[in-house]
Amino acid sequence: MKSYLKHYIDGRWVESEGGRRHEVIDPSTEQPVSEITLGSEADVDKAVAAARKAFGSFSQSRVEDRIALLERIIAAYKDRTADLAVATSEEMGAPISFAQAAQVPAGLGYFLGTLSALKDFRFSEQLPKARVVHEPIGVCGLITPWNWPLNQICAKVAPCIAAGNTMILKPSEEAPGNAVILAEILDAAGVPAGVFNLVNGDGRGVGAALSGHRHVDMISFTGSTRAGIAVAQAAAPTVKRVHQELGGKAPNLVLKGADLPNVLPPTVNGVIANSGQSCIAPTRLLVHESQVFDATAVVKGILEAIKVDAADVEGGHIGPVVNKAQYEKIQGLIQSAIDEGATLVTGGTGRPDGRNSGFFVKPTLLTDVTPQMRIYREETFGPVATITAYGDADDAIEMANDTEYGLSATISGDPAEAAKVAPLLRAGLITINAWGPGGGTPFGGYKQSGNGREGGKYGIADFMEIKTIVGEPA
After folding, report:
1. What is the pLDDT of residues 411-425, one digit of tens each?
2. Is 160 among the residues known to form the active site?
């Protein structure tokens, strides 16, 4: 079992002050795979003090120096890709081949995109009677999830460095190993002491201490809407900036007359990839009533071709979901849909055949799902798709928008027709015959899916303050 018992504070690996040991469980085997120390409020205070001390100099560093620093980080990251993939696979259950091909490159992509954006970023703009400048916001608390751990860590760390901020990272206690390796990468790349700090912990401990800390200027949180509300409430007394990417329940609006065998496989893949543990998974298929039978056959074929296997096995299968609580939530949502009148087409409750342990979920399709059902409204975070029929285009748009969330929406069908529908959907990301975001583009949601954006120049700007200067000499 791997041990990551120290925190990284002020450029050194240090013992916790009053923390407690926590075992990380391999979801394929249900056995411990690593251990960390859940940090304390004292650990957070120490990390915040280090970040505040470092901010004075790092905030004044030259852009050219920060560009060079990002380039060194990228080189060091590439040297550790194998280690990052193994840690991610063991702890959150991504098959090793998927970790190598998608999970690890996703994090690198944010560093590459931020580097490109920083080279062109306009830190100063001259208006007729004033100058507007972007300045580092200060000490940032970064709280990240387990489902795409490196993606979400790097989406915050990269713009923090580019902007000239200092930071404290609290990764998910479900998948902390990749964050420890990233701390080693940043150290090897020469990130100045105190600029990046890592304190492992849980939400109630380290997360709450960071959110409410009076010397933290910004909290950037990715996770569930429920937890995001708690973060915002903890941050409110100090009126710090709260930047959030929260839950989703993305529709897949299948346009009437769509060429189903061609347009559905790439969009339904979003329900399957990462075992369905993606906040932009387009799980709610909305299909015209004339094509429900055909769409059901296509999606059933896609899901039944998916293999399920352990995370350490190479190949194109899906792995387990992250933990027992997530497994049981998915089982409960599938059963609730059946109890409420949905038709189970394939999959269902229980583990796949031949599996007596591990948090493995059957790829599942449910039809006759109505907007009143729990599974239509709650984020599933598993390889589960639903089909709901619509009557006309207005019905389809209304149903797509009938959710508390607004992180993403997918449209399957003729791209020209889809382009007309896209402006009518209330979501921060609209994908046409695809499901993933584009590199360097802003990512974030409407409604209860959060506030703010990550990615490219938009991500850098969201980690900065804007200052107006009036009366400077010409």
Report:
1. 999 999 999 999 999
2. no
